[in-house]
Amino acid sequence: MQTEPQKVKHILLVGNPNVGKSTIFNLLCNKNQKTGNYAGVTVASHQGTYIHQGEEVEIVDLPGSYSIYPTSEDEAIFTKYLIEEQEKYSGVIYIADALNLKRSLLLFQQIKDLGIPVLVVLNQMDLAEKRGLHIDSKKLETLIGNRILKTNAKANIGIEEIRNAIRNNEFSASDKAFFDIPSENLGLVFKISRQINETNFYKVWTLIAADTYLGKLESVKTQLNQEDRKCMVPKRLQVQETIRRYQQIDGYMSQIISKKPQFKELLTEKLDKVLVHPILGYLVFAIILLTIFQSVFFIAEYPMNWIDGSFAWLSQFTKTHLPDGPINSLLSDGIIPGIGGIVIFAPQIGILLYFLYLLEDSGYMARVIFLMDRFLRPFGLNGKSIVPLVSGTACAIPAIMSTRNIENVKERLITILITPFMTCSARLPVYSIIIALIFSDETIWGIQYKALALFAMYFLGFVTALISAFILKYFIKNKGKTFLVMDLPAYKMPLWTYDFKLVLGKVWEFITGAGKIILAVSVILWVLSYFGPKDEKQLFQVQSEVKLENSYLAKIGRQMEPAIAPLGYDWKMGVGILSSFAAREVFVGTMSTLYSLDDEAEEQTVIEKMKADVKPNGEKVFNFATGISILIFYAFAMQCISTIAVVYRETKSWKWTAIQLVFMSGLAYFVSMIAYQILK
Fold first, then answer.
1. Can you give the pLDDT at residue 512?
2. Which of 366, 410, 430, 592 is the most buried (most CB within 10 A)?
């Protein structure tokens, strides 16, 4: 006897930004979705599944929103899915913030009035208690007519209760609307409800109160006369609704919240006196950054040396134990050094990302955003622009996608165009190897020159992004002005182990992603370096196992030399730059492969070979002038095919994508050329 396939229960996870929604999603589905402490970290819906008591449940984590009326692309994703996909899900788990309950209840009321079954989860109860707030959840249940669960997501408290409530279908639909349609609009709402066959009056109200199309508004507009359309002033109707809802919610607050006497100032308030201070805040941020960059070199030195030695041993092992010939050369001189050239920088990338995750998880990153908001305004940027700019230090691709939470079209476009200037993790291997080549281990005031140089590169990228934004604001037409609205969450102890697991995942993604490209590039480079023309008169006759300087690769590189010589580069660096258009970090793998192919000084490591390499005139290839030129080139150059693709996808404009590519590449060439010519 065949059993029927088990139905999957579909549940939405919604709430305001920064209420712990993504953390609950991770715990429910055991899915490593990144969480953060600033609004807009979730810019698209994410799905995960789990099985509880034999029932499979699919959770869809929607972007955070303060209202069902969308003002940005990520809020539009939320509203569109919530309303248009209502038949596809069984109910909504609404995450309310115990610290900001009044604000949370606004969106809850709107969802409930749409006729959607809801289960309320009151999160961050521990922080509310620490602030001296006592919430009578039983009384609130009675007032709103809804089941309420209490959780502390950071401590994994209450998650099993959520699973049980989903299993038992403890979702409550609305018996009576919280919001009464104003009498002056009732006639229009009733008229539209008949035209579109909609019995939920509040859903009809949202059609006339929304700035953008929520369901059937465009078809409705064509059927309305001029007198009806005069009533459709969205902003005025939204404000009217918000005021009436908050008047009702204020009545709830007086009944359910009590404050303990002799309430002491929390650690959050004490720290914020320093960390968001208009002068001390910037100083503390600079010290934190310097500490991170110092750690990137100091802590990573030992695992990097171990990785470098391991790959050198593996390369020598294959060279010694495999039979002489092309396969031996391909493995020992091509693939192994190429992949090793990327893996060696995994500790530095991991350390940098781990610190960023800790800062984000603790709540400090929100303070950075608050500090930088006042600073970004003169450059034509919204305060929300700092979110993708900060995210860009990890990778430009998700950072550009996160601009969807910027409402203003002009500010969003500017942010997209300047974000690639931020120093991403792909640039870090390039910076690290060049800084190691041209700077000594000496220190000043206990800080290594190398750490200061790395700090300078991050600072250069940020300053260039701001200057570019300042220029762009005069060329892009203004579409209105917006203001930053966000919370400063309470400081929390970071989830050290959880963040470490996230870092391991991100580092592995970096290694595997870059490794595939490096593998392909290494094979191509090896083929071009292993073979060469027999002589000048017989170009089509191939000679195998030639010296590197006589190979096809050298021939290609030397064709480039006239163009790159003004920048101080030789043909090997030219090949490295050419290959790194696939991805910036490929430059390091290419240089590792090229210097491993050199037969001289086989016992030396790649970095030692690069340090010892000299030009025909006896001058060091990687001198100070050349090193600075390379650093500047990679700080500005738009060398990432994936980033170019995502810029086009987000802007839907080949014009702006081409302008960005040409401007950044041209700037990289001319500034690095000027730097080399001055310093040489």
1. 80
2. 592
Q: Do residues 14 and 65 make contact, with C-beta atoms less than 8 angstroms apart?
A: yes
Query: pLDDT tens-digit profile of 618-677?
Result: 788 888 999 999 999 999 998 777 788 878 878 888 899 999 999 999 999 999 999 999
CA neighbor of 93 nearest in space, from 8, 165, 178 = 165
* Cα 602 from Cα 611, distance rounded (Å): 14
- Which pLDDT value is given to residue 223? 52
Task: Phi first, then psi: give them for residue 447, nearest 5 degrees.
Answer: -110, 130
User: In Å, what is the CA distance from 523 to each residue of 311, 314, 330, 542?
Assistant: 17, 18, 7, 18
Given a cut of 70, the residues of the chain with pLDDT beneath it are 1-6, 31-45, 211-233, 261-266, 398, 478-487, 514, 534-549, 582, 597-606
Virtual torsion, Cα 234, 239, 245, 248, nearest 10 deg: -150
Supply the pLDDT for residue 149. Answer: 94
Distance CA 589, CA 345 (A): 11
**Residues whose CB falls within 8 Å of the CB of residue 540, separated by 6 or more in sequence, listed in order:** 533
Quick one: DSSP state of residue 181? P
What is the DSSP code string of 582-623? SBTTHHHHHHHHHHHH--TTTTS-HHHHHHH-B-TTS-BTT-
The encoded tokens of residue 330 equal 């391909």
Distance in angstroms (rounded) separating the CA atoms of residues 365 and 487: 11
- In the DSSP assignment, the letter for residue 172 is B
Give the separation between CA 341 and CA 334, rounded to whole angstroms.
11
Question: From CA 418, how far away is CA 467, in angstroms rounded?
Answer: 9
Are 348 and 25 spatial neighbours (Cβ–Cβ below 8 Å)?
no
Q: What gap in Å lies between CA 232 and CA 209, rounded to an integer?
A: 7
Distance CA 526, CA 643 (A): 27
Q: Which of 582, 663, 669, 635 is nearest to 427 (CA)?
A: 635
Please tell me whether the overall predicted TM-score, pTM, comes out greater than 0.90 for this model: no
Q: Is 544 helix (H, G, I), strand (E, B) or coil?
A: strand
- Spatial contact of 276 and 371, defined as CB atoms under 8 Å apart: yes
Single-letter code of the amino acid located at 270: K
Tokens 């390369």 appear where?
315
Burial 142-172 (b: 16+ CB within 10 A, else e): eebebebbbbbbbeeebbeebbebbeeebbb
Rounded CA separation 648/391 (Å): 19
DSSP string, 240-300: HHHHHHHHHHHHHHHHHEEE-SSPPPPHHHHHHHHHT-TTHHHHHHHHHHHHHHHHHHHTT
Q: What is the pLDDT of residue 241?
A: 92
- Distance, in Å, from the CA atom of 616 to the CA atom of 381, rounded to the nearest integer, reads 49
Short-list 599, 609, 576, 594, CA closest to 526: 594
CA distance 220 to 230: 14
Angstrom distance (rounded) from CA 675 to CA 290: 25
CA–CA dist 417, 421 (Å, integer):
9
**Element spanning 15, H or E:** strand 9-15
Q: How far is 548 from 584, CA to CA, in rounded Å?
A: 24
Distance from C-alpha of 594 to C-alpha of 440, rounded to nearest angstrom:
24
Instruction: Give the three-class secondary structure for 52.
Output: strand
Looking at residue 445, its pLDDT comes to 78
